[in-house]
Amino acid sequence: MNFEQFDSRVKASYEDKINYTRKIIRKAYNEFGRKLSVSCSFGKDSVVVLYFARELDPDIPVLWANTGVEFPETVKFARKLTREWGLNLIEVKPAKTFWQCVNEYGFPWPRKVKMKNGYKTPGTPRCCYWMKEKSLKDKIQELGIEATFTGLTWDESYQRKWLIIRHGDWYFVKKKGYWFIHPIAYWNTFEVWMFIEENNIPFNPMYEKIERIGCRTCTAHFGWEKQMALVSPKLYNYIMKKMRELGDPRATYLISDFV
Ligand code: SF4
């Protein structure tokens, strides 16, 4: 895909994006039959993709990497949606726990960070690999799944935007051995919320408090300090203490700076 193609898909109307999403999901069924899954974090984007995928196959395997450091609200929401929608949920456990990863590799950093002496690009956080990527890859291979739908969208981050420009919304990852399909790659956050509202799709109640739902311990996104200090002040203090012990340069702020 080139930038012009990406740009025209991003600028397409909301209705055209919905049609395109249904088209790409139908195409995936024609190509992979039942060897498909949805990778679902129970955030708003992957639930929208799940909604579309279930129009064709209500029994599609739903792979959830339950990291063990999810918000309790996310766990409750996942269980509730599984009951209400009768999901074929496959829960995947982390290959290493978050705290094991912290002890071995330190706290996760964003993929690109501005430091005093230039940019630091730590790449994929090790905990993402051990708690999500590896466990999902192993399960997908074990189940003989050939392709997985994800809820990735271009406006989540600069990296995701460039991933789509470079690879498109449908590509094979050789080292994983299966295809990634991003049916709502060209949607923006506003369109995702509009679709949720129009179709009465349940959403994770944590969105009433924060914009970004992921691991509650995550230090790999900008603004994590403020978010964590607000919703989990005890955890924030604990992480600051642990950062100090590990000599992490981010251990500079006090909770009183934020609340
Ligand atoms: S979301 Fe954050 S804490 Fe969770 S696995 Fe990825 S980097 Fe680690």
Question: How would you describe this protein?
Answer:
With 259 residues, the protein is of the alpha/beta class. The protein has a domain of 179 residues: Rossmann fold. The strands form 2 sheets. Strands 3-2-1-6-8-7 form a 6-stranded mixed β-sheet. The protein has a two-stranded antiparallel ribbon with strand order 4-5. α3 links the parallel β1 and β2. The mean pLDDT is 92. Bound molecules: iron/sulfur cluster.
Estimate the helix proportion, in percent: 40-55%
Report the order of strands and helices: HHEHEHEHEEHEHEEHHH
Return residue spans where pLDDT drops below 50 for at least 5 consecutive residues.
none
DSSP E strands, number: 8
CATH topology of the domain at 3-95 and 126-211: Rossmann fold
Q: At the fourth CATH level, what is the homologous superfamily of the domain at 3-95 and 126-211?
A: HUPs
What is the distance, rounded to the nearest whole angstrom, between the alpha carbons of the first and last residues? 45 Å
What is the class of the domain at 3-95 and 126-211 in the CATH system? Alpha Beta
Q: Mean pLDDT, nearest integer? A: 92
Compute the gyration radius: what is it? Answer: 19 Å
Q: Compounds present?
A: iron/sulfur cluster
Shape: globular
Number of helices: 10
